[in-house]
């Protein structure tokens, strides 16, 4: 089986995000970059599928030079090879452009199933997997919590508001992965050593035949609205503080 | 030239989801500023009779695709049906719900319509007659103002943020043929297993009571559930509680879970790790109950109680029960 897992490098969840004074983006100094946590579920599912059905796993990623570390992490987890699309015109690209770049590469590779994280925790757009599927003309199932493949039949479960939904489709398809699908493995030391020798193709936009033209862009980045300092309720009696809280919520905040 | 503010209305089990009225109201506001009309797309089966109802929330015209293949929702059938009428009528703006369905549909439309989409928006404005969509980035650690280079400018709106405004318009109904090709439809819904526990969805809740590591174990969440019941609230959890296996992943609030903006968020035994704060800081009022006075959650809280949550929470439940009786 030819399995693809798309990954993105993002700031670690513990990162304090600072906005540049001119609003042109965030300050990147000192950020610890990691594999997008939702993509880890995709890589893990790809590896599990390979272990069960045979085949190989190719990692595809769009991003600047530092992205190579994240591709190597996925190779250390057990993927066979990688494609790194690195072009300054694609840094901070919108979902459409990113999906175009991924599609341009994936079209040239055999692909039975493609995994993408349901969203990347930086831009939180949650679009790339679906757009990629559309550009490739194949089905997509988003937010998958459970996946079964039998032949070319695909059965996927996802949570919708107030229900669990089971969706059936067929290969080839794109699956976007949600927390709960699996427990991503850690890269082993031998895995890390082996990953250094695994092949990664580096391509720029011209090599894959695309020209970046954003359909949407973040024109300005702003800090979140400041919150007024709160009130700490004083006293030793939990019951009295609880009563005061309920009174404030009712009469001052008017939220209950 | 692209013209008009459009929405895709969301129906589940034959009824509009509340967020549909929110996006209709938001669309009306933009259309009034632009001097344009609001049109809605309604896709489903046996739903034509529901269409005119949208007029109440400011919709001038409703395009209805009534087809057995459109119920229940599947990605490929709905994306094809919406794309067909949007391509034909060429609206300037297209708003959808940032629900599970709306996010799935809108992302697929990005590909079909070769346009841009701002996901999970908390604000909309017009600059020079063009849409600017305001949305959280990094789960709310900062915000982005998104501008569009293609039409329709698409945005999904976070539930519970945009007010519902009644503003009666014609709601004229026009049926169209979605021209679905059965051979092209590759996904189908095999089963929908409803949660019959009466649980309120986190992303749509007005009030959330949330518990973290300070809950000490899964068996103690009943005190939060009791409070939630009295307040009509949903129960959430921090990543620590989910990773410990105390609560299901669907309950997680934060950067690797759900981003929520209820009117009231009550954080119990949650220290306030940055990735949790990111997911709930846009709540209108925040209450923190934690015995550690240094917990970062207190810096975000409107009201804080520094005490043992096991003593405080049942008292809050009792006091709320009295006041709400």
List the helices and strands and how they pair.
The complex is a heterodimer of chains A (256) and B (325).
Chain A: E1 2-7, E2 9-11, E3 33-35, H1 37-53, E4 56-62, H2 67-77, E5 81-85, H3 95-106, E6 113-117, H4 128-136, E7 140-150, E8 153-160, E9 163-170, E10 173-177, H5 189-195, E11 200-203, H6 205-208, E12 216-222, E13 231-232, H7 238-251
Chain B: E1 5-8, E2 11-12, E3 15-16, H1 18-34, E4 38-44, E5 61-66, H2 75-89, E6 93-97, H3 100-113, E7 117-121, E8 123-127, E9 130-137, E10 142-148, E11 153-157, E12 172-175, E13 188-194, E14 207-211, H4 222-231, E15 234-237, H5 239-243, E16 264-268, H6 274-280, E17 285-290, E18 303-306, H7 309-324
Parallel strand pairs in B: 1-4, 1-6, 4-5, 5-12, 6-11, 7-11, 14-15, 14-16, 16-17, 17-18
Antiparallel strand pairs in B: 2-3, 8-9, 9-10
List keywords for this structure.
heterodimer, A: 256 residues, alpha/beta, Rossmann fold, 9-stranded mixed β-sheet, two-stranded antiparallel ribbon, 29% helix, B: 325 residues, 2 domains, 7-stranded parallel β-sheet, 7 helices, 28% strand
Into which percentage range does the β-strand content of chain A fall?
Answer: 25-35%
Could you say which structural class the secondary elements and strand pairing of chain A correspond to? alpha/beta
Order of helices and strands of chain A: EEEHEHEHEHEEEEHEHEEH
The tally of helices of chain A reads 7
Count structural domains of chain A. 2
Unreliable segments of 5+ consecutive residues of chain A: none
Whole-number mean pLDDT of chain B? 96
- How is the biggest beta sheet of chain B arranged? 7 strands, parallel
Distance between the termini of chain B: 56 Å
Give the CATH topology of the largest domain in chain B: Rossmann fold
The most extensive contact between chains is: A-B, 85 and 102 residues
The shape of chain B, in one word, is elongated
Integer tally of domains of chain B: 2
């Amino acid at each position: 089986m030819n399995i693809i897992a798309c990954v993105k490098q993002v700031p670690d969840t513990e990162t304090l995000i600072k906005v540049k004074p001119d609003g042109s983006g965030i300050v990147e100094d000192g950020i610890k970059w990691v594999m997008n946590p939702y993509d880890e579920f995709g890589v893990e599912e790809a590896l599990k599928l390979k272990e069960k059905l045979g085949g190989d796993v190719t990692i595809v990623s769009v991003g600047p030079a530092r992205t190579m570390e994240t591709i190597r992490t996925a190779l250390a987890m057990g993927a066979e090879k990688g494609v790194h699309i690195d072009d300054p015109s694609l840094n901070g690209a919108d979902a459409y452009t990113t999906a175009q770049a991924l599609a341009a590469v994936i079209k040239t590779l055999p692909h039975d199933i493609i995994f993408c994280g349901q969203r990347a925790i930086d831009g939180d757009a949650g679009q790339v997997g679906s757009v990629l599927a559309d550009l490739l003309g194949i089905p997509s199932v988003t937010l998958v919590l459970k996946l079964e493949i039998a032949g070319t039949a695909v059965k996927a479960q996802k949570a919708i508001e107030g229900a669990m939904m089971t969706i059936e489709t067929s290969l080839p398809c794109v699956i976007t992965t949600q927390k709960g699908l699996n427990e991503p493995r850690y890269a082993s030391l031998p895995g890390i050593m082996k990953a250094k020798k695994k092949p990664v193709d580096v391509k720029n936009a011209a090599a894959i035949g695309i020209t970046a033209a954003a359909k949407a862009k973040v024109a300005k980045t702003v800090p979140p609205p400041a919150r007024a300092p709160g009130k700490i309720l004083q006293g030793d009696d939990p019951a009295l503080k609880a009563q005061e809280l309920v009174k404030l919520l009712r009469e001052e905040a008017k939220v209950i | 030239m692209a013209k008009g503010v459009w929405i895709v209305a969301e129906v589940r089990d034959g009824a509009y989801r509340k967020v549909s009225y929110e996006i209709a109201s938001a669309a009306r506001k933009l259309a009034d500023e632009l001097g344009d009309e609001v049109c809605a797309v309604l896709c489903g089966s046996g739903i034509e009779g529901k269409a005119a109802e949208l007029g109440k929330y400011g919709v001038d015209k409703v395009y209805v695709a009534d087809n057995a293949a459109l119920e229940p929702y599947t990605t490929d059938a709905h994306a094809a049906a919406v794309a067909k009428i949007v391509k034909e009528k060429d609206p300037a703006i297209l708003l959808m719900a940032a629900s599970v369905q709306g996010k799935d549909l809108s992302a697929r439309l990005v590909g079909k319509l070769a346009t841009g989409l701002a996901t999970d928006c908390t604000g909309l404005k017009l600059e020079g007659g063009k849409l600017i969509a305001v949305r959280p980035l990094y789960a709310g650690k900062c915000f982005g103002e998104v501008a569009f280079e293609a039409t329709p400018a698409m945005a999904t709106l976070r539930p519970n943020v945009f007010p519902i405004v009644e503003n009666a318009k014609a709601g004229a109904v026009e049926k169209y043929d979605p021209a679905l090709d059965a051979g092209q439809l590759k996904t189908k819904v095999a089963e929908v297993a409803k949660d019959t526990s009466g649980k309120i969805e986190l992303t749509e809740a007005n009030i959330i009571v949330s518990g973290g590591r300070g809950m000490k174990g899964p068996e103690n969440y009943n005190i939060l559930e009791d409070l939630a019941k009295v307040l009509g609230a949903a129960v959430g959890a921090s990543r620590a509680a989910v990773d410990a296996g105390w609560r299901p992943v669907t309950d997680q609030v934060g950067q690797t879970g759900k981003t929520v903006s209820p009117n009231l968020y009550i954080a119990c035994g949650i220290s306030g790790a940055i990735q949790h704060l990111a997911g709930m800081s846009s709540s209108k009022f925040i209450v923190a109950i934690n015995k550690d006075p240094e917990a970062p959650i207190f810096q975000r809280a409107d009201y804080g109680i520094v005490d043992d949550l096991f003593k405080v929470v049942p008292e809050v439940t009792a006091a709320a029960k009295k006041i709400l009786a």
